[in-house]
């Protein structure tokens, strides 16, 4: 571990010094093997962790050499891809374009499922469990929520809400609002009202397009009731301001606390330098509202002139895990950092969590945007990861089925394709373990009412169930 930290610091320092002195990374003649290393370093974090990401790819902006060079060099900012012109030389950019176009011609590999141990059982450090696929044939399953009768609701990012019944029937639920399913946007998280059995309210987050200009959108939350396989009594309880043409960093995870407040995340929406540190917008924030969308009178910025009243904390980048500690009732989040610096935070009213003024990461293109990792008045993360694991989804292990994991945090790793377990002591991460390695991009993890762990994997999408064994 010490060696890894030294290597990471050396790389970051080297990048910083080269940028500081006006020299692009790899500005000198580059050996061919460095092109593949650059691809692994700069591309795979967002474009999956497999070279097959570019096999038989559907290209949004053209697939000629010139098109690919232009995309790498200038970026596609509205879709979340930065410009690499400041961090990489023209030679490396051209080499990466040739490398990517070469991957495009590869024959797609047949899908290989996750491989368990030789006995078919997964062996964690402290318990054994088997893995069963309970739902398959999905695309990018985002939200998971269990109904009282045991049926599983699944949100597909492409804008579909599905019901998987206890008898194994998968059906589509009708009545969704207009959804801007583009880039990182679409139908996002799901959450039942704490008193669902009496009031029937289902909450869901989605990227909501502007009624007059479909190019603009932002994160919204709606509640509705289920009547058979149709949504009825729909009410919009939140819509983030301002709307933007960018297609990334929407958030959005939902969580009710023990007092019935609804907490949720809204990402910075790609406007790093303006949104997170200013209170006149909803982006780069954790919000708290009542179940009907009204604002709690004790929210920290209700009396602040010009502030958006739903804001509970600010200075966030793109939290895609929000959950409540089962014993303390505190709200915890995991958050996508830039290239390095993914975080776990405990959310407190009115606190500033620092993005982008302080960070343990650098830009995706290798350039440095801040050298500060701490500053007065800004919270330190409870835990952070360098390199980034791209955390997504987050839950505490509850109940008695996994006794040696109880109150541990589980979060998915999109970047490295595993389920991450964090052991806590006195609100500190004291141990970590990788589970289900190479299982695929883990988009979400959820505890079922009967105490089992369910894991959502994307592309190809499926839902896994983890069952402890003796």
UniProtKB/TrEMBL annotation:
Cytochrome c domain: residues covered: 17-104
Keywords, comma-separated and alphabetical: Heme, Iron, Metal-binding
Source organism of the structure: Plebeiibacterium marinum
Keyword flag Transferase: no
Lineage, uppermost ranks: Bacteria, Pseudomonadati, Bacteroidota, Bacteroidia, Marinilabiliales
SUPFAM superfamilies with a match to the protein in the record: Cytochrome c, Soluble quinoprotein glucose dehydrogenase
UniProt xrefs under PROSITE patterns: CYTC (PS51007)
Name assigned to this protein: PQQ-dependent sugar dehydrogenase
GO molecular function: electron transfer activity; heme binding; metal ion binding
């Amino acid at each position: 571990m010490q060696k890894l930290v030294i290597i990471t610091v050396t790389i970051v320092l080297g990048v910083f010094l080269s940028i500081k002195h006006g020299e692009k990374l790899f500005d000198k003649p580059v050996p061919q093997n460095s092109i593949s290393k650059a691809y692994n370093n700069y591309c795979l974090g967002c474009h999956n962790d497999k070279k097959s990401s570019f096999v038989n790819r559907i290209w949004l902006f053209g697939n000629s050499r010139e098109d690919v060079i232009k995309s790498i060099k200038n970026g596609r900012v509205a879709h979340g891809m930065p410009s690499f012109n400041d961090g990489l030389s023209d030679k490396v950019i051209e080499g990466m374009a040739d490398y990517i176009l070469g991957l495009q011609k590869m024959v797609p590999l047949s899908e290989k499922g996750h491989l368990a141990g030789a006995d078919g059982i997964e062996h964690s450090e402290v318990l054994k469990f088997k893995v069963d696929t309970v739902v398959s044939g999905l695309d990018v399953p985002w939200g998971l929520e269990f109904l009282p009768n045991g049926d599983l609701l699944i949100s597909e990012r492409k804008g579909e809400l599905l019901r998987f019944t206890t008898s194994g029937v998968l059906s589509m639920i009708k009545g969704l609002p207009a959804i801007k399913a583009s880039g990182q946007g679409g139908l996002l998280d799901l959450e039942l009202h704490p008193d669902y059995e009496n009031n029937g309210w289902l909450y869901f987050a989605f990227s909501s397009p502007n009624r007059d200009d479909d190019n603009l959108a932002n994160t919204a939350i709606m509640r509705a009731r289920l009547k058979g396989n149709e949504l009825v009594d729909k009410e919009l309880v939140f819509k983030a301001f301002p709307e933007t043409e960018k297609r990334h960093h929407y958030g959005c995870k939902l969580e009710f606390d023990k007092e019935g407040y609804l907490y949720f995340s809204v990402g910075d929406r790609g406007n790093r330098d303006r949104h997170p540190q200013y209170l006149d917008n909803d982006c780069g924030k954790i919000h708290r509202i009542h179940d009907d969308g009204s604002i709690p009178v004790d929210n920290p910025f209700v009396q602040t002139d010009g502030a958006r009243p739903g804001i509970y904390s600010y200075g966030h980048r793109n939290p895609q895990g929000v959950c409540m500690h089962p014993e303390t009732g505190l709200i915890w989040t995991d958050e996508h950092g830039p290239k390095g610096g993914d975080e776990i935070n405990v959310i407190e009213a009115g606190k500033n969590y620092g993005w982008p003024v302080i960070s343990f990461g650098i830009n995706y293109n290798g350039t440095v945007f801040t050298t500060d990792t701490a500053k007065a008045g800004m919270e330190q993360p409870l835990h952070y990861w360098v390199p980034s694991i791209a955390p997504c989804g987050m839950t505490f292990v509850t109940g008695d089925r996994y006794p040696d994991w109880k109150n541990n945090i589980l979060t998915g790793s999109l970047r490295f394709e595993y389920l991450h377990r964090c052991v806590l002591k006195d609100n500190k991460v004291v141990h970590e373990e990788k589970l289900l390695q190479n299982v695929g991009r883990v988009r979400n993890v959820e505890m079922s009412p009967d105490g089992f762990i369910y894991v959502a994997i994307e592309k190809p999408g499926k839902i896994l169930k983890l069952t402890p064994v003796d």
